[in-house]
Amino acid sequence: MPARILIVDDELSMREFLAILLEGEGYQVDQAECAEDALDSMAQVKFDLVISDVSMPGLNGIQLLSRIKSQTPETAVLMITAFSTAEQAVEAMKLGAYDYIGKPFKVEEVKVLVAKALAQKTLVQENQRLKAEVQERFSFSGLVGKSKQMREVYDLISKVADSMANVLILGESGTGKELAAKAIHYNSPRRDRSFLAVNCGAIPETLIESELFGHTKGSFTGAIADRPGLFEQAEGGTLFLDEIGEVPLQLQAKLLRVLQEREFRRVGGSSSLKADVRIVAASNRNLEEQVGEGTFREDLFYRLNVVQVRMPALRERAEDILPLVEHFYKKYALWSGSGDMVTPDAAAALLNYPFPGNVRELENLVERCVVLGSRVITLECLPPKVRNFVPVSTPLDPVDIPPEGMDLQGYLDTLESRLLVQALEKSGGVKKKAAALLGMTFRSFRYRLAKFGMDDE
């Protein structure tokens, strides 16, 4: 759709000249002979650009500019006059005019200015749209669910977001800890500044200090230039430290200093830098147990644990499973139709399955169905471990074999995967303890986790 332009000038010849010129460039052009008529037109039509003379009977162009910017600030305005002065130019620019040119002007000059003014308006609108989209996505819509457990999470995030308090988010892998951290950031006064995330367990121990605090040139082999770390890059914003339980003890002491003193030094640096950064940390480990084992500093734990947010496992909020399926199906299939997205038998299987990988596993499952071309989520598109899942509490002896037969291996696989999940639950996620509960070696336990695609979870 072509951009719509309003030309405001008390001279008919000038209006018609500009109209012919701009219509020839493909724009849709309207005319007004005074500011009052222009305002009447703008009350009925949304214009992308207004080109206005300065000297007109009644309201002049500067007064019209002021009215436009107060009523529709997104409208671009270009001022034209035969009596150009520096004072007028400064006043027009202060009031928000895109530019100011004097008569007589060159045709090409007008074409270029109009194109630039419209391009800038489009860019501003796009930035505003993206900003609104980001804030909407991470306000609370990124966290889906209306269960009691999730309502408690939303309530806690709302209360803590405006403060500078450190937040510790705990929960199993795949429960949405980073989404919760983003919700805290985008509901806080720091929403217009950076949100940076780092997985502390994914960075080699020799590099994590440099990654967080930066380094100076020559501080170690390969440091060919000064480099800011994440604390500098997140200045004024939020730094999300995921898997904080993986941080080495030596670095924990330096993190504690940042939290206490709000300052740090680059690796190899001699001067302290201020750290205006909010810290949100997360872990799928039991940090209190790590404190007792001596692998996590107690003072750092209490510094991080000012406010604790616990993300519930998906099996604890089964009522959110189907709304999550709908959310992910719309995301991956760009679905905009009506009706059910999940068949009844598929819904029953999804509600029966414990989802050891939590929301992340469910999202991957829905994406898989979309990739396989399912118009709705059916039982056939679900992975075998989901559609064949049998709860451990189901009696095993005697086994009713249906007339058509049964998949014995599938039955045994689902039983084995459920026992693996239970062992992990009872051991608090500690795999060595879970292996001991099942009377097997750690290596054998890891092999079985990998067999069922549960190794990362």
From TrEMBL:
PROSITE patterns per record: RESPONSE_REGULATORY, SIGMA54_INTERACT_2, SIGMA54_INTERACT_3, SIGMA54_INTERACT_4
Keywords: ATP-binding, DNA-binding, Nucleotide-binding, Phosphoprotein, Transcription, Transcription regulation, Two-component regulatory system
Annotated ranges, domain Sigma-54 factor interaction: 143-371
Matches recorded under InterPro entries: AAA+_ATPase, AAA_lid_NorR, CheY-like_superfamily, Homeodomain-like_sf, HTH_Fis, P-loop_NTPase, Sig_transdc_resp-reg_receiver, Sigma_54_int
Modified residues (4-aspartylphosphate): 53
GO biological process, one term: regulation of DNA-templated transcription
Name of the protein this chain belongs to: Acetoacetate metabolism regulatory protein AtoC
Organism from which the protein derives: Geomonas silvestris
Lineage: Bacteria, Pseudomonadati, Thermodesulfobacteriota, Desulfuromonadia, Geobacterales
Gene that this sequence comes from: pilR
